Amino acid sequence: MSAAILDGSILLAQIMLALACACCAYRIVFGPRAQDRILGLDAFYVTSMLILLTIGMRTGSAVYFDAALVIAIVGFVGTVALAKFLMRGEVVE
């Protein structure tokens, strides 16, 4: 009984995270300013990382957790670089 509840709740979480990814993709494409697009991209990589984590929980494979860690690191560095570019106009000093 508890395994079925866990599997159903993870499936529901994946559906909600997919809807969140769709909302983030909308903000990336139709954002009125560059700052809105960067925020949408930041939220998109967080939700995609969470989707990979829930897939890893359902399958029991550690590969998805490693991929989520890589997405988190690359997404953070990308967000910092884009924010610095918007603030100063250059990334490398």
Automatic annotation (TrEMBL):
GO terms for cellular component: plasma membrane. The keyword Zinc does not apply. One of its GO terms (molecular function) is sodium:proton antiporter activity. The chain crosses the membrane at residues 6-26, 38-57, 63-87. It is a multi-pass membrane protein. InterPro entries: MrpF/PhaF-like. The keyword Membrane applies. It comes from the Bacteria. It is found in: Cell membrane. Keywords: Antiport, Cell membrane, Ion transport, Membrane, Transmembrane, Transmembrane helix, Transport. Belongs to the CPA3 antiporters (TC 2.A.63) subunit F family. NCBIfam families: PRK06161.1. PANTHER family: NA(+)/H(+) ANTIPORTER SUBUNIT F1 (PTHR34702), NA(+)_H(+) ANTIPORTER SUBUNIT F (PTHR34702:SF1). This is K+/H+ antiporter subunit F. It comes from Aureimonas endophytica.
